[in-house]
Write a sequence for this structure.
Protein backbone atom coordinates (compact mmCIF):
# COMPACT_ATOMS: atom_id res chain seq x y z
CA UNK A 1 0.00 0.00 0.00
CA UNK A 2 2.72 2.44 1.05
CA UNK A 3 4.99 1.51 -1.87
CA UNK A 4 2.15 2.16 -4.32
CA UNK A 5 1.48 5.64 -2.98
CA UNK A 6 4.40 7.48 -4.64
CA UNK A 7 3.24 6.20 -8.03
CA UNK A 8 -0.31 7.25 -7.21
CA UNK A 9 0.78 10.76 -6.18
CA UNK A 10 3.04 10.90 -9.24
CA UNK A 11 0.03 10.13 -11.42
CA UNK A 12 -1.92 12.87 -9.70
CA UNK A 13 0.86 15.38 -10.21
CA UNK A 14 1.38 14.45 -13.85
CA UNK A 15 -2.15 15.13 -15.03
CA UNK A 16 -2.09 16.36 -18.61
CA UNK A 17 -4.94 18.56 -19.68
CA UNK A 18 -6.21 17.65 -23.15
CA UNK A 19 -5.90 20.25 -25.86
CA UNK A 20 -9.63 20.61 -26.20
CA UNK A 21 -9.75 21.96 -22.64
CA UNK A 22 -7.56 25.05 -22.52
CA UNK A 23 -6.40 26.24 -19.13
CA UNK A 24 -8.55 28.94 -17.64
CA UNK A 25 -7.51 31.71 -15.29
CA UNK A 26 -10.74 33.17 -14.00
CA UNK A 27 -9.62 36.44 -12.49
CA UNK A 28 -11.58 36.37 -9.28
CA UNK A 29 -11.18 40.12 -8.69
CA UNK A 30 -13.45 40.80 -11.62
CA UNK A 31 -16.16 38.31 -12.49
CA UNK A 32 -16.81 39.99 -15.85
CA UNK A 33 -13.53 38.78 -17.24
CA UNK A 34 -12.28 35.37 -18.25
CA UNK A 35 -8.71 34.95 -19.40
CA UNK A 36 -7.77 31.73 -21.15
CA UNK A 37 -4.11 30.86 -21.47
CA UNK A 38 -3.23 28.31 -24.15
CA UNK A 39 -1.34 25.41 -22.65
CA UNK A 40 0.92 25.24 -25.71
CA UNK A 41 2.06 28.86 -25.20
CA UNK A 42 5.80 29.27 -24.74
CA UNK A 43 9.01 27.44 -25.55
CA UNK A 44 8.77 24.47 -27.88
CA UNK A 45 10.74 21.34 -26.84
CA UNK A 46 13.52 22.06 -29.37
CA UNK A 47 14.21 25.57 -28.06
CA UNK A 48 13.89 24.49 -24.42
CA UNK A 49 16.39 21.67 -24.96
CA UNK A 50 18.89 24.00 -26.66
CA UNK A 51 18.69 26.50 -23.78
CA UNK A 52 19.06 23.76 -21.17
CA UNK A 53 22.10 22.45 -23.03
CA UNK A 54 23.94 25.80 -23.04
CA UNK A 55 23.13 26.36 -19.37
CA UNK A 56 24.56 22.94 -18.55
CA UNK A 57 27.71 23.81 -20.49
CA UNK A 58 28.02 27.13 -18.63
CA UNK A 59 27.49 25.42 -15.30
CA UNK A 60 30.11 22.78 -16.06
CA UNK A 61 32.65 25.61 -16.29
CA UNK A 62 33.05 25.65 -20.09
CA UNK A 63 33.81 29.10 -21.40
CA UNK A 64 33.56 31.07 -23.53
CA UNK A 65 30.40 29.64 -25.09
CA UNK A 66 29.32 30.95 -28.49
CA UNK A 67 26.00 30.23 -30.16
CA UNK A 68 25.78 30.46 -33.93
CA UNK A 69 22.97 33.02 -33.99
CA UNK A 70 20.77 33.95 -31.00
CA UNK A 71 19.16 30.95 -29.31
CA UNK A 72 15.84 32.76 -29.10
CA UNK A 73 14.42 36.13 -30.11
CA UNK A 74 14.19 37.69 -26.69
CA UNK A 75 16.44 40.51 -25.56
CA UNK A 76 16.13 39.82 -21.83
CA UNK A 77 16.93 36.13 -22.16
CA UNK A 78 19.87 36.93 -24.43
CA UNK A 79 21.15 39.39 -21.78
CA UNK A 80 20.79 36.75 -19.07
CA UNK A 81 22.71 34.26 -21.20
CA UNK A 82 25.40 36.90 -21.81
CA UNK A 83 25.77 37.28 -18.04
CA UNK A 84 26.44 33.55 -17.88
CA UNK A 85 29.17 33.81 -20.53
CA UNK A 86 27.00 32.62 -23.45
CA UNK A 87 27.45 34.93 -26.44
CA UNK A 88 25.61 34.86 -29.76
CA UNK A 89 27.71 35.35 -32.91
CA UNK A 90 26.26 36.22 -36.30
CA UNK A 91 28.74 34.33 -38.47
CA UNK A 92 31.38 31.61 -38.37
CA UNK A 93 34.04 34.25 -39.11
CA UNK A 94 33.42 35.81 -35.69
CA UNK A 95 34.71 32.69 -33.91
CA UNK A 96 37.59 31.90 -36.25
CA UNK A 97 40.81 31.63 -34.24
CA UNK A 98 38.94 31.69 -30.93
CA UNK A 99 38.73 29.01 -28.25
CA UNK A 100 35.80 27.64 -26.28
CA UNK A 101 32.54 25.99 -27.29
CA UNK A 102 30.40 26.67 -30.34
CA UNK A 103 26.75 25.68 -30.08
CA UNK A 104 24.64 25.01 -33.16
CA UNK A 105 21.14 26.21 -32.26
CA UNK A 106 17.84 24.36 -32.75
CA UNK A 107 17.37 25.69 -36.32
CA UNK A 108 20.35 23.65 -37.57
CA UNK A 109 22.89 24.64 -40.25
CA UNK A 110 24.00 23.40 -43.68
CA UNK A 111 26.39 20.39 -43.93
CA UNK A 112 29.05 22.72 -45.40
CA UNK A 113 28.76 25.11 -42.46
CA UNK A 114 28.92 22.16 -40.06
CA UNK A 115 32.11 20.86 -41.70
CA UNK A 116 33.57 24.35 -41.46
CA UNK A 117 32.79 24.82 -37.75
CA UNK A 118 34.10 21.35 -36.92
CA UNK A 119 37.39 22.30 -38.54
CA UNK A 120 37.87 25.39 -36.38
CA UNK A 121 39.31 23.57 -33.37
CA UNK A 122 36.48 24.63 -31.08
CA UNK A 123 34.35 22.15 -29.17
CA UNK A 124 31.17 21.92 -31.25
CA UNK A 125 27.87 21.11 -29.53
CA UNK A 126 25.05 20.30 -31.92
CA UNK A 127 21.68 21.41 -30.49
CA UNK A 128 19.81 21.04 -33.76
CA UNK A 129 16.26 19.99 -32.93
CA UNK A 130 15.74 16.29 -33.82
CA UNK A 131 12.57 17.30 -35.68
CA UNK A 132 14.61 19.63 -37.91
CA UNK A 133 17.14 16.82 -38.42
CA UNK A 134 14.27 14.67 -39.60
CA UNK A 135 13.59 17.21 -42.39
CA UNK A 136 17.31 17.16 -43.26
CA UNK A 137 17.15 13.40 -43.80
CA UNK A 138 13.93 13.57 -45.86
CA UNK A 139 15.54 16.12 -48.19
CA UNK A 140 18.94 14.44 -48.49
CA UNK A 141 17.41 10.97 -49.05
CA UNK A 142 15.33 12.24 -51.98
CA UNK A 143 18.10 14.48 -53.30
CA UNK A 144 20.32 11.39 -53.57
CA UNK A 145 17.57 9.77 -55.70
CA UNK A 146 17.52 12.72 -58.10
CA UNK A 147 14.54 14.62 -56.69
CA UNK A 148 14.34 18.41 -56.75
CA UNK A 149 13.30 20.06 -53.49
CA UNK A 150 10.59 22.60 -52.79
CA UNK A 151 10.55 24.06 -49.29
CA UNK A 152 7.40 25.85 -48.19
CA UNK A 153 8.77 28.46 -45.81
CA UNK A 154 10.43 31.83 -45.35
CA UNK A 155 13.38 32.67 -47.61
CA UNK A 156 16.41 33.60 -45.52
CA UNK A 157 15.08 32.05 -42.27
CA UNK A 158 17.92 30.22 -40.50
CA UNK A 159 16.14 26.85 -40.56
CA UNK A 160 15.34 27.18 -44.28
CA UNK A 161 18.94 28.12 -45.06
CA UNK A 162 20.02 24.94 -43.26
CA UNK A 163 17.45 22.80 -45.13
CA UNK A 164 18.66 24.11 -48.51
CA UNK A 165 22.12 22.76 -47.71
CA UNK A 166 20.75 19.19 -47.79
CA UNK A 167 19.01 19.60 -51.16
CA UNK A 168 20.47 18.61 -54.51
CA UNK A 169 21.16 20.77 -57.55
CA UNK A 170 17.68 22.26 -57.82
CA UNK A 171 15.92 23.59 -54.73
CA UNK A 172 13.26 26.27 -54.38
CA UNK A 173 11.76 28.13 -51.44
CA UNK A 174 8.18 29.32 -51.78
CA UNK A 175 6.11 31.21 -49.22
CA UNK A 176 2.71 30.11 -50.52
CA UNK A 177 0.54 29.02 -53.49
CA UNK A 178 1.10 32.29 -55.41
CA UNK A 179 4.86 31.84 -55.46
CA UNK A 180 4.44 28.14 -56.26
CA UNK A 181 2.56 29.10 -59.46
CA UNK A 182 5.74 30.79 -60.70
CA UNK A 183 7.92 27.69 -60.34
CA UNK A 184 9.32 26.10 -63.53
CA UNK A 185 7.97 22.73 -64.73
CA UNK A 186 9.41 20.02 -62.47
CA UNK A 187 10.17 16.35 -63.06
CA UNK A 188 10.61 14.56 -59.71
CA UNK A 189 10.12 16.73 -56.63
CA UNK A 190 9.92 16.32 -52.86
CA UNK A 191 7.87 19.03 -51.12
CA UNK A 192 8.68 19.74 -47.47
CA UNK A 193 7.63 22.40 -44.97
CA UNK A 194 9.60 24.64 -42.67
CA UNK A 195 8.79 23.07 -39.28
CA UNK A 196 6.81 26.12 -38.11
CA UNK A 197 4.80 26.52 -41.31
CA UNK A 198 1.04 26.96 -41.22
CA UNK A 199 -0.56 23.65 -42.22
CA UNK A 200 -3.24 25.12 -44.47
CA UNK A 201 -0.67 27.16 -46.42
CA UNK A 202 1.58 24.12 -46.77
CA UNK A 203 -1.16 21.84 -48.09
CA UNK A 204 -2.43 24.42 -50.60
CA UNK A 205 1.10 25.18 -51.79
CA UNK A 206 1.99 21.49 -52.04
CA UNK A 207 -1.11 20.93 -54.23
CA UNK A 208 0.02 23.67 -56.63
CA UNK A 209 3.57 22.28 -56.80
CA UNK A 210 2.19 18.78 -57.37
CA UNK A 211 0.29 20.09 -60.37
CA UNK A 212 3.52 21.39 -61.89
CA UNK A 213 5.53 18.17 -61.46
CA UNK A 214 5.57 14.82 -63.21
CA UNK A 215 6.11 13.05 -59.89
CA UNK A 216 5.72 14.67 -56.46
CA UNK A 217 6.24 13.40 -52.93
CA UNK A 218 4.58 15.53 -50.26
CA UNK A 219 6.28 15.29 -46.85
CA UNK A 220 4.39 17.30 -44.25
CA UNK A 221 7.34 18.13 -42.01
CA UNK A 222 5.55 20.69 -39.84
CA UNK A 223 6.56 19.55 -36.36
CA UNK A 224 4.01 18.21 -33.90
CA UNK A 225 4.56 20.97 -31.30
CA UNK A 226 3.78 23.55 -34.01
CA UNK A 227 0.69 21.67 -35.16
CA UNK A 228 -0.58 21.36 -31.59
CA UNK A 229 0.05 25.05 -30.98
CA UNK A 230 -1.76 26.08 -34.17
CA UNK A 231 -4.69 23.76 -33.50
CA UNK A 232 -5.15 25.03 -29.96
CA UNK A 233 -4.71 28.66 -31.04
CA UNK A 234 -7.40 28.35 -33.71
CA UNK A 235 -9.79 26.74 -31.25
CA UNK A 236 -9.11 29.51 -28.74
CA UNK A 237 -9.30 32.41 -31.21
CA UNK A 238 -12.74 31.24 -32.29
CA UNK A 239 -14.26 31.64 -28.84
CA UNK A 240 -12.79 34.85 -27.39
CA UNK A 241 -13.43 38.53 -28.11
CA UNK A 242 -9.77 39.53 -27.74
CA UNK A 243 -6.78 37.41 -28.68
CA UNK A 244 -3.29 38.34 -27.50
CA UNK A 245 -0.18 36.82 -29.06
CA UNK A 246 3.01 37.26 -27.05
CA UNK A 247 6.39 37.11 -28.76
CA UNK A 248 9.13 38.95 -30.59
CA UNK A 249 7.98 41.04 -33.55
CA UNK A 250 10.63 39.48 -35.80
CA UNK A 251 9.80 35.89 -34.82
CA UNK A 252 8.40 34.09 -37.88
CA UNK A 253 6.30 31.58 -35.97
CA UNK A 254 4.79 34.28 -33.73
CA UNK A 255 3.87 36.35 -36.79
CA UNK A 256 2.26 33.24 -38.27
CA UNK A 257 0.20 32.66 -35.12
CA UNK A 258 -0.96 36.29 -35.27
CA UNK A 259 -2.04 35.95 -38.90
CA UNK A 260 -3.86 32.71 -38.05
CA UNK A 261 -5.76 34.38 -35.19
CA UNK A 262 -6.65 37.49 -37.17
CA UNK A 263 -8.69 35.34 -39.53
CA UNK A 264 -10.78 33.95 -36.66
CA UNK A 265 -10.74 36.85 -34.21
CA UNK A 266 -10.49 40.32 -35.80
CA UNK A 267 -9.62 41.76 -32.39
CA UNK A 268 -6.14 40.17 -32.29
CA UNK A 269 -3.07 41.98 -30.98
CA UNK A 270 0.58 40.95 -31.05
CA UNK A 271 2.68 42.26 -28.16
CA UNK A 272 6.31 41.77 -27.35
CA UNK A 273 6.02 42.80 -23.70
CA UNK A 274 3.29 43.73 -21.24
CA UNK A 275 4.19 47.40 -21.76
CA UNK A 276 2.46 47.32 -25.15
CA UNK A 277 -0.93 46.39 -23.71
CA UNK A 278 -3.54 49.09 -24.23
CA UNK A 279 -5.64 49.52 -21.08
CA UNK A 280 -8.64 50.75 -23.10
CA UNK A 281 -8.67 47.56 -25.20
CA UNK A 282 -8.19 45.30 -22.17
CA UNK A 283 -10.95 47.00 -20.17
CA UNK A 284 -13.60 46.42 -22.83
CA UNK A 285 -12.86 42.70 -23.33
CA UNK A 286 -14.95 40.02 -21.63
CA UNK A 287 -13.09 36.93 -22.78
CA UNK A 288 -9.38 37.14 -23.54
CA UNK A 289 -7.31 34.37 -25.09
CA UNK A 290 -3.52 34.36 -24.76
CA UNK A 291 -0.91 32.33 -26.59
CA UNK A 292 2.77 32.76 -27.43
CA UNK A 293 5.34 31.79 -30.03
CA UNK A 294 7.81 28.91 -29.75
CA UNK A 295 10.63 31.20 -28.61
CA UNK A 296 8.63 33.15 -26.02
CA UNK A 297 9.59 32.25 -22.44
CA UNK A 298 6.65 31.33 -20.21
CA UNK A 299 7.43 34.12 -17.75
CA UNK A 300 6.88 36.72 -20.51
CA UNK A 301 3.38 35.42 -21.04
CA UNK A 302 2.83 35.44 -17.28
CA UNK A 303 3.87 39.09 -17.14
CA UNK A 304 1.25 39.90 -19.75
CA UNK A 305 -1.28 37.95 -17.71
CA UNK A 306 -0.30 39.82 -14.54
CA UNK A 307 -0.58 43.19 -16.28
CA UNK A 308 -4.07 42.36 -17.58
CA UNK A 309 -5.07 41.40 -14.08
CA UNK A 310 -3.66 44.66 -12.73
CA UNK A 311 -5.49 46.73 -15.36
CA UNK A 312 -8.78 45.07 -14.57
CA UNK A 313 -8.29 45.20 -10.84
CA UNK A 314 -8.06 48.98 -10.93
CA UNK A 315 -11.75 48.94 -11.84
CA UNK A 316 -12.80 47.19 -8.68
CA UNK A 317 -11.71 48.53 -5.31
CA UNK A 318 -12.69 46.20 -2.50
CA UNK A 319 -11.41 44.92 0.81
CA UNK A 320 -10.53 41.61 -0.87
CA UNK A 321 -8.62 43.48 -3.53
CA UNK A 322 -6.66 45.43 -0.92
CA UNK A 323 -5.91 42.21 0.95
CA UNK A 324 -4.57 40.58 -2.19
CA UNK A 325 -2.34 43.58 -2.86
CA UNK A 326 -0.96 43.37 0.68
CA UNK A 327 -0.25 39.66 0.19
CA UNK A 328 1.42 40.41 -3.15
CA UNK A 329 3.68 42.97 -1.52
CA UNK A 330 4.59 40.55 1.26
CA UNK A 331 5.36 37.73 -1.17
CA UNK A 332 7.34 39.94 -3.56
CA UNK A 333 9.43 41.49 -0.79
CA UNK A 334 10.16 38.09 0.86
CA UNK A 335 8.40 39.27 4.04
CA UNK A 336 5.95 36.39 3.58
CA UNK A 337 8.84 33.91 3.44
CA UNK A 338 10.11 35.41 6.71
CA UNK A 339 6.63 34.92 8.20
CA UNK A 340 6.72 31.29 7.04
CA UNK A 341 10.00 30.78 8.89
CA UNK A 342 8.45 32.28 12.04
CA UNK A 343 5.51 29.89 11.66
CA UNK A 344 7.73 26.84 11.16
CA UNK A 345 9.82 27.78 14.21
CA UNK A 346 6.63 27.99 16.27
CA UNK A 347 5.58 24.50 15.09
CA UNK A 348 9.05 23.08 15.83
CA UNK A 349 9.05 24.63 19.32
CA UNK A 350 5.68 23.04 20.03
CA UNK A 351 6.90 19.67 18.73
CA UNK A 352 9.91 19.79 21.05
CA UNK A 353 7.80 20.95 23.98
CA UNK A 354 9.84 24.17 24.24
CA UNK A 355 8.61 27.30 25.89
CA UNK A 356 7.58 29.68 23.07
CA UNK A 357 10.36 32.26 22.98
CA UNK A 358 9.48 35.31 20.86
CA UNK A 359 13.15 36.16 20.37
CA UNK A 360 13.80 32.88 18.55
CA UNK A 361 10.73 33.43 16.38
CA UNK A 362 11.97 36.91 15.40
CA UNK A 363 15.49 35.58 14.85
CA UNK A 364 14.26 32.90 12.42
CA UNK A 365 12.11 35.41 10.51
CA UNK A 366 14.94 37.96 10.15
CA UNK A 367 17.46 35.28 9.17
CA UNK A 368 15.33 33.78 6.39
CA UNK A 369 14.08 37.18 5.16
CA UNK A 370 17.66 38.47 4.96
CA UNK A 371 19.08 35.51 3.04
CA UNK A 372 16.21 35.27 0.58
CA UNK A 373 16.61 38.94 -0.38
CA UNK A 374 20.41 38.67 -0.64
CA UNK A 375 20.10 35.67 -2.96
CA UNK A 376 17.47 37.39 -5.10
CA UNK A 377 19.49 40.58 -5.37
CA UNK A 378 22.62 38.57 -6.26
CA UNK A 379 20.68 36.93 -9.07
CA UNK A 380 19.54 40.43 -10.06
CA UNK A 381 15.89 39.39 -9.90
CA UNK A 382 15.92 38.87 -13.67
CA UNK A 383 13.65 36.34 -15.24
CA UNK A 384 11.19 36.40 -12.39
CA UNK A 385 7.77 35.52 -13.64
CA UNK A 386 6.04 38.39 -11.93
CA UNK A 387 6.38 41.89 -13.33
CA UNK A 388 5.87 43.40 -9.88
CA UNK A 389 8.71 41.38 -8.40
CA UNK A 390 11.11 42.37 -11.16
CA UNK A 391 10.09 46.01 -10.79
CA UNK A 392 10.40 45.85 -7.02
CA UNK A 393 13.93 44.43 -7.18
CA UNK A 394 14.99 46.68 -10.05
CA UNK A 395 13.63 49.89 -8.55
CA UNK A 396 14.56 49.27 -4.93
CA UNK A 397 17.73 47.24 -5.20
CA UNK A 398 19.71 49.42 -2.79
CA UNK A 399 17.09 49.77 -0.03
CA UNK A 400 16.30 46.06 -0.30
CA UNK A 401 19.98 45.14 -0.04
CA UNK A 402 20.40 47.43 2.96
CA UNK A 403 17.25 45.95 4.57
CA UNK A 404 18.59 42.44 3.98
CA UNK A 405 21.93 43.20 5.62
CA UNK A 406 20.32 45.06 8.52
CA UNK A 407 17.97 42.09 9.08
CA UNK A 408 20.93 39.72 8.91
CA UNK A 409 22.87 41.81 11.43
CA UNK A 410 19.83 41.99 13.70
CA UNK A 411 19.46 38.20 13.63
CA UNK A 412 23.18 37.86 14.43
CA UNK A 413 22.94 40.44 17.23
CA UNK A 414 19.90 38.70 18.67
CA UNK A 415 21.63 35.32 18.55
CA UNK A 416 24.69 36.76 20.35
CA UNK A 417 22.39 38.22 22.96
CA UNK A 418 20.78 34.79 23.47
CA UNK A 419 23.85 32.54 23.65
CA UNK A 420 27.32 32.44 22.06
CA UNK A 421 26.74 28.92 20.70
CA UNK A 422 23.53 30.13 19.04
CA UNK A 423 25.50 32.97 17.48
CA UNK A 424 28.05 30.47 16.09
CA UNK A 425 25.29 28.42 14.41
CA UNK A 426 23.46 31.48 13.05
CA UNK A 427 26.66 33.14 11.81
CA UNK A 428 27.88 29.97 10.03
CA UNK A 429 24.53 29.38 8.34
CA UNK A 430 24.10 33.04 7.39
CA UNK A 431 27.60 33.26 5.89
CA UNK A 432 27.10 30.09 3.83
CA UNK A 433 23.69 31.31 2.69
CA UNK A 434 24.96 34.77 1.71
CA UNK A 435 27.90 33.31 -0.23
CA UNK A 436 25.77 30.63 -1.90
CA UNK A 437 25.17 32.40 -5.26
CA UNK A 438 28.81 33.42 -5.68
CA UNK A 439 31.51 31.34 -7.36
CA UNK A 440 34.58 31.64 -5.18
CA UNK A 441 35.95 28.09 -5.06
CA UNK A 442 38.77 26.66 -7.15
CA UNK A 443 38.07 26.87 -10.89
CA UNK A 444 35.40 29.54 -10.33
CA UNK A 445 32.85 27.13 -9.00
CA UNK A 446 30.58 27.65 -6.03
CA UNK A 447 27.99 25.85 -3.94
CA UNK A 448 25.46 26.86 -6.58
CA UNK A 449 27.17 24.52 -9.08
CA UNK A 450 26.26 21.34 -7.19
CA UNK A 451 23.14 19.62 -8.56
CA UNK A 452 20.07 20.31 -6.43
CA UNK A 453 22.17 22.42 -4.05
CA UNK A 454 19.69 25.28 -3.75
CA UNK A 455 16.92 23.11 -2.36
CA UNK A 456 19.22 21.08 -0.11
CA UNK A 457 20.96 24.19 1.28
CA UNK A 458 17.64 25.95 1.91
CA UNK A 459 16.27 22.93 3.78
CA UNK A 460 19.40 22.57 5.94
CA UNK A 461 19.51 26.31 6.72
CA UNK A 462 15.87 26.52 7.73
CA UNK A 463 16.17 23.22 9.64
CA UNK A 464 19.08 24.58 11.67
CA UNK A 465 17.45 27.90 12.52
CA UNK A 466 13.80 26.91 12.86
CA UNK A 467 14.19 23.54 14.61
CA UNK A 468 17.72 22.97 15.91
CA UNK A 469 18.19 26.40 17.53
CA UNK A 470 15.11 26.25 19.81
CA UNK A 471 16.38 22.88 21.08
CA UNK A 472 19.89 24.25 21.52
CA UNK A 473 18.62 27.30 23.35
CA UNK A 474 16.62 25.24 25.80
CA UNK A 475 19.23 22.51 26.24
CA UNK A 476 17.33 19.67 24.60
CA UNK A 477 19.47 18.96 21.52
CA UNK A 478 20.06 15.31 20.64
CA UNK A 479 16.77 14.31 22.21
CA UNK A 480 14.16 12.40 20.23
CA UNK A 481 11.90 15.46 20.12
CA UNK A 482 14.76 17.59 18.76
CA UNK A 483 15.65 15.02 16.07
CA UNK A 484 11.99 14.80 15.11
CA UNK A 485 11.58 18.59 14.83
CA UNK A 486 14.76 18.95 12.73
CA UNK A 487 13.70 16.11 10.41
CA UNK A 488 10.18 17.53 10.13
CA UNK A 489 11.51 21.02 9.26
CA UNK A 490 14.09 19.76 6.74
CA UNK A 491 11.58 17.57 4.90
CA UNK A 492 8.93 20.30 4.75
CA UNK A 493 11.33 23.03 3.62
CA UNK A 494 12.98 20.77 1.05
CA UNK A 495 9.54 20.00 -0.45
CA UNK A 496 8.71 23.72 -0.44
CA UNK A 497 11.91 24.64 -2.22
CA UNK A 498 11.58 21.87 -4.83
CA UNK A 499 7.96 22.84 -5.55
CA UNK A 500 8.93 26.47 -6.12
CA UNK A 501 11.79 25.23 -8.32
CA UNK A 502 9.31 23.27 -10.44
CA UNK A 503 7.19 26.37 -11.00
CA UNK A 504 10.36 28.29 -11.97
CA UNK A 505 11.17 25.69 -14.63
CA UNK A 506 7.58 25.68 -15.89
CA UNK A 507 7.82 29.46 -16.24
CA UNK A 508 10.92 28.99 -18.49
CA UNK A 509 13.09 30.92 -16.05
CA UNK A 510 16.82 30.64 -16.58
CA UNK A 511 17.62 28.16 -13.84
CA UNK A 512 20.46 25.70 -13.73
CA UNK A 513 21.15 22.34 -12.12
CA UNK A 514 21.19 23.92 -8.65
CA UNK A 515 17.46 23.40 -9.06
CA UNK A 516 16.65 19.82 -7.93
CA UNK A 517 13.94 19.39 -10.58
CA UNK A 518 16.29 20.48 -13.35
CA UNK A 519 19.11 18.28 -12.05
CA UNK A 520 17.12 15.09 -11.47
CA UNK A 521 14.30 15.40 -13.97
CA UNK A 522 10.55 15.24 -13.61
CA UNK A 523 10.00 11.57 -12.65
CA UNK A 524 12.61 11.42 -9.94
CA UNK A 525 11.60 14.79 -8.51
CA UNK A 526 7.92 13.91 -8.25
CA UNK A 527 8.82 10.50 -6.81
CA UNK A 528 11.02 12.24 -4.20
CA UNK A 529 8.26 14.70 -3.30
CA UNK A 530 5.72 11.91 -3.02
CA UNK A 531 8.09 9.84 -0.85
CA UNK A 532 8.67 12.80 1.47
CA UNK A 533 4.96 13.34 1.93
CA UNK A 534 4.45 9.62 2.59
CA UNK A 535 7.26 9.69 5.14
CA UNK A 536 5.84 12.78 6.88
CA UNK A 537 2.36 11.31 7.02
CA UNK A 538 3.74 7.95 8.23
CA UNK A 539 5.78 9.62 11.01
CA UNK A 540 2.87 11.77 12.17
CA UNK A 541 0.48 8.80 11.88
CA UNK A 542 2.80 6.57 13.94
CA UNK A 543 3.20 9.25 16.63
CA UNK A 544 -0.54 9.68 16.74
CA UNK A 545 -1.03 5.93 17.12
CA UNK A 546 1.50 5.95 19.97
CA UNK A 547 -0.43 8.76 21.65
CA UNK A 548 2.58 11.14 21.62
CA UNK A 549 1.35 14.77 21.83
CA UNK A 550 -1.75 13.47 20.10
CA UNK A 551 -3.61 16.79 19.81
CA UNK A 552 -0.63 18.62 18.30
CA UNK A 553 0.40 15.71 16.05
CA UNK A 554 -3.21 15.18 14.95
CA UNK A 555 -3.52 18.87 14.08
CA UNK A 556 -0.26 18.79 12.08
CA UNK A 557 -1.39 15.63 10.29
CA UNK A 558 -4.66 17.30 9.27
CA UNK A 559 -2.77 20.42 8.13
CA UNK A 560 -0.34 18.32 6.12
CA UNK A 561 -3.07 16.24 4.49
CA UNK A 562 -4.93 19.42 3.57
CA UNK A 563 -1.79 20.78 1.91
CA UNK A 564 -1.16 17.54 -0.04
CA UNK A 565 -4.81 17.51 -1.15
CA UNK A 566 -4.53 21.16 -2.21
CA UNK A 567 -1.36 20.49 -4.24
CA UNK A 568 -2.92 17.47 -5.97
CA UNK A 569 -6.04 19.47 -6.80
CA UNK A 570 -4.00 22.47 -7.98
CA UNK A 571 -1.90 20.21 -10.22
CA UNK A 572 -4.99 18.69 -11.78
CA UNK A 573 -6.20 22.18 -12.73
CA UNK A 574 -3.00 24.02 -13.53
CA UNK A 575 0.49 24.44 -12.06
CA UNK A 576 0.28 27.71 -10.12
CA UNK A 577 3.20 29.98 -10.92
CA UNK A 578 4.84 33.11 -9.61
CA UNK A 579 3.00 34.89 -6.84
CA UNK A 580 0.27 32.28 -6.30
CA UNK A 581 2.76 29.41 -6.16
CA UNK A 582 4.78 31.15 -3.46
CA UNK A 583 1.68 32.23 -1.56
CA UNK A 584 0.30 28.68 -1.56
CA UNK A 585 3.53 26.81 -0.84
CA UNK A 586 4.75 29.13 1.93
CA UNK A 587 1.21 29.37 3.25
CA UNK A 588 1.46 25.74 4.44
CA UNK A 589 3.73 26.83 7.31
CA UNK A 590 1.28 29.51 8.41
CA UNK A 591 -1.54 26.96 8.30
CA UNK A 592 0.49 24.40 10.27
CA UNK A 593 1.34 27.04 12.89
CA UNK A 594 -2.33 27.97 13.15
CA UNK A 595 -3.28 24.30 13.62
CA UNK A 596 -0.51 23.87 16.20
CA UNK A 597 -1.77 26.95 18.07
CA UNK A 598 -5.34 25.69 17.84
CA UNK A 599 -4.38 22.28 19.25
CA UNK A 600 -3.20 23.97 22.44
CA UNK A 601 -6.53 25.72 22.90
CA UNK A 602 -8.65 22.57 23.17
S1 LIG B 1 9.49 24.49 -33.70
FE1 LIG B 1 9.42 22.26 -33.77
S2 LIG B 1 11.13 21.68 -35.07
FE2 LIG B 1 11.46 23.81 -34.51
S3 LIG B 1 12.77 23.70 -32.73
FE3 LIG B 1 10.68 23.76 -31.98
S4 LIG B 1 10.09 21.62 -31.73
FE4 LIG B 1 11.91 21.67 -33.01
Amino acid sequence: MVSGLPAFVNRLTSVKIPLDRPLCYNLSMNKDLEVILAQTAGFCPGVKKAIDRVLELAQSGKHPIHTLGPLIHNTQVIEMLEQKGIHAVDSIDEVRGKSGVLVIRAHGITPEAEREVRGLGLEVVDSTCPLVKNVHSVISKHASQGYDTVIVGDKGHAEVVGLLGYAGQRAFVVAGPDEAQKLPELDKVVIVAQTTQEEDVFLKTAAVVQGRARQAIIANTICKPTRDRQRETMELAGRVDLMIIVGAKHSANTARLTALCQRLCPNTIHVETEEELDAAVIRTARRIGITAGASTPGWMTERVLARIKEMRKKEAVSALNALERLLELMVDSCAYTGLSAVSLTYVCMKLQGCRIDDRLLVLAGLFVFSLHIINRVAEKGVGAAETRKVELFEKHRLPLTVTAFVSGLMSLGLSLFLQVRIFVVVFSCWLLGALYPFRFLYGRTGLIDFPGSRDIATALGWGAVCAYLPGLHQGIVFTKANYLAVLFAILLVFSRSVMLGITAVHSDLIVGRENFYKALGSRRTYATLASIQVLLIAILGALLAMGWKSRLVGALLIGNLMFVGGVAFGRSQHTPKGFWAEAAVDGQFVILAFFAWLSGRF
Residues 480-506 form the longest helix (27 residues). The CA atoms of residues 203 and 244 lie 26 Å apart. The first strand starts at residue 23 and ends at 26.
